[in-house]
């Protein structure tokens, strides 16, 4: 079984929901990324998303764009991220997922990229700009190497939700709002109705993300899904950190607060 499946099965048995934090690999640097991952797991993170920095991240708001830019300026490359994931894997078996744009995979070489994901210990891929026409190849190669394609749906997907979730595994990334990523004070989507629609097409666990920024929002939306994704609000804390120790402390406290809200 894939680590993602094992984690959601474990949480279901404990009647808990998954906390899925997102960080950009290499922000502020790759060694700190490793330490942040370990700190997040210690504080209660269940699955961790690592963003591969990209120069034109269309789905991301200013916070994650800035994070990507910082990583790219530091010279972060995909092969270096693979190396740091391999080091992470020597210390933890927490499920790890890449959020990566399709053009990065295409340039790297689709099979080479997925094979290396499997080798270093990545469990799944979220690809925000993946063309429907290319899904089949990603799914087939992913099955060969044990790397899941995690489907991403949005409130605007509507009639396409059934097609998007078909063949997806691990969990469904349910975008909570129309637009790009970014911490928000409120979400106006009818989440209950939206998640009911997604549920009608798949029994794969559903994780809600985009805009969720606080423990109170986590508590509000946890009844409607099996997991909550937090990105921009976490990256803001990393960006404000004065040094590595300050970053780790801030991340641990925030993750613990969010996880407590999921219990």
TrEMBL record:
Keywords: Amino-acid biosynthesis, Aromatic amino acid biosynthesis, Lyase, Tryptophan biosynthesis. Pathway: Amino-acid biosynthesis; L-tryptophan biosynthesis; L-tryptophan from chorismate: step 5/5. It is an enzyme of class 4 (lyase). SUPFAM superfamilies: Ribulose-phoshate binding barrel. Tetramer of two alpha and two beta chains. GO terms for molecular function: tryptophan synthase activity. PANTHER family: TRYPTOPHAN SYNTHASE ALPHA CHAIN, CHLOROPLASTIC, TRYPTOPHAN SYNTHASE, ALPHA CHAIN. Belongs to the TrpA family. The active site is at residues 49, 60. InterPro entries: Aldolase_TIM, RibuloseP-bd_barrel, Trp_synthase_alpha_AS, Trp_synthase_suA. The alpha subunit is responsible for the aldol cleavage of indoleglycerol phosphate to indole and glyceraldehyde 3-phosphate. Its EC number is 4.2.1.20. This is Tryptophan synthase alpha chain. Pfam families: Trp_syntA. It catalyses: (1S,2R)-1-C-(indol-3-yl)glycerol 3-phosphate + L-serine = D-glyceraldehyde 3-phosphate + L-tryptophan + H2O. NCBIfam families: trpA.
């Amino acid at each position: 079984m894939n680590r993602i499946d094992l984690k959601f099965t474990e949480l279901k048995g404990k009647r808990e929901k998954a906390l899925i934090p997102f960080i950009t690999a290499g922000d502020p640097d790759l060694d700190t990324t490793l330490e942040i991952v370990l700190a997040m797991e210690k504080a209660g993170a269940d699955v961790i998303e690592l963003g591969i920095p990209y120069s034109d991240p269309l789905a991301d708001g200013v916070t994650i764009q800035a994070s990507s830019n910082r990583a790219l300026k530091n010279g972060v490359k995909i092969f270096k991220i693979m190396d740091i994931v391999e080091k992470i894997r020597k210390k933890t078996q927490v499920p790890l997922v890449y959020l990566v744009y399709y053009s990065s995979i295409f340039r790297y070489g689709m099979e080479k990229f997925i094979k290396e994901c499997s080798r270093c210990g990545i469990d799944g891929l979220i690809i925000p700009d993946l063309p429907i026409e290319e899904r089949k190849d990603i799914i087939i190669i992913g099955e060969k190497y044990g790397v899941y394609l995690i489907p991403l749906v949005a409130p605007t997907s509507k009639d396409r939700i059934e097609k998007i979730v078909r063949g997806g595994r691990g969990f469904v990334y349910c975008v909570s709002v129309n637009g790009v990523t970014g911490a928000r004070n409120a979400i106006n989507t009818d989440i209950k109705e939206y998640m009911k629609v997604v549920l009608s097409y798949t029994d794969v666990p559903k994780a809600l993300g985009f805009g969720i920024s606080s423990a109170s929002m986590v508590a509000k939306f946890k009844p409607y899904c099996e997991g909550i994704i937090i990105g921009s609000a976490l990256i803001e804390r990393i960006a404000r950190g004065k040094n590595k120790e300050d970053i780790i402390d801030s991340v641990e406290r925030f993750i613990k607060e969010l996880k407590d809200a999921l219990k």
